[in-house]
Amino acid sequence: MPEPTAAPLVLALGLATAALGVAFGIAFMVVGGLLLTVGLGMWFAHLLPGKGHFHEPLVAPEFRPAAISASLGTVAELHPGVPGYRFRLPEEVHPISAGVKGGIVGGLLMPIPALAYGILSGHGIWYPINLLAGMVLPGMDQLTIEQLEAFRLDLFIASSLIHIVICLIVGLIYGVLMPTLPSLPRSVAWGGLLMPILWTGTMYLTIGLFNPLLSLGVDWPSFIVSQFLFGIVVAVVVQLDQRRHSMIAGLLGGLVGGLLMPLPAIVWAWSTGRTIWYPPNLLAAMIYPEMRSLSSQELQMFRTDWLVAAIAIHLAMTLSFGLVYGALLPRVTRIPGPLAWGGLVLPLVWTGMSYGLMGIVNPLMQQRVDWPWFVVSQFIFGIVAAIVVLRSEMVHIAPAGSGPAVDQEAATKWLTK
To answer: Where are the transmembrane segments (predicted)?
Structure first.
């Protein structure tokens, strides 16, 4: 029997990540190239002689089906005009209006996290609204924080139009694409998508609690890429290593993922002109309160105690999450394919597009957006829109073409058999 493999998914993810590097920078290109190489290696290894398949034992002879003896005239032949002669698959689909409804409902709930961020951060509700207008309006980077916190009718109209158009377009995409997308493997849907989101949220809250100033120095897009790289690697290791206990496989996956996870952060530091010690020093600042008063230049220095602390934190967290992955992935239920795509994958694509577009139009505005809160908004939209589409009515697809006239006698005879 063919052996399942995650190689095509890893290869596709690497290709997409490398393509995003055109807008996001060299860090995405390097990570995409690494994933592309890993995916190709996995796929080539799957095609080697003696690989890529497993032996399925036959059941006992008494449980095997009996031989089928042919007999003529027992199966009715389909003739033109008989129901079922010509039809299209799938026979039922969600209507396009379901995507529009999903976009409207998701668009109504999506601004809640952004408005909550504006209130909790002290900027006010108009700050996130005005930042949204910066996706397409040039010159927004010339505005001060005080001006962005104030109400402006032109910015409100621009952001409202952007929000409505994007919600309707993405909702239409959901309605058309989601019913046709295949189901994601359980380990990839949970370990490679959902759990990295939870880890990112945990780290965001932890850094904000222990050292709020350092959260401003973290490049959250590259941080999120690191989490997804870790999650996918651990999920693949746990899925492929069936010979060991799931907890041992989780530890091994955590170790391998932990080795690859720092690459996006290091590439980001190098591409932005910082030293490679800047990311580990930010991690060490979680347990060194006195580091919150250091400047960006001081955080780029090498210090042995900071490096040891960062390595200890990194190992403790990757091995702990590896154990959690190993314990939970074999036991969690499968996420429905449309919900996994609509609630997890497509919001990431939307976030990447918004990040890249704002980086081209208004790079300074890109830095002012609180991207973790932005990601939360996208996932709320994705989950709500996916649920609305899934719960919408189904439309029957009529047979292809008009076909010949219906033979009522043949149809009645066929139905009564």
So the answer is: 12-45, 114-136, 156-177, 189-214, 220-240, 247-270, 306-328, 340-365, 371-390
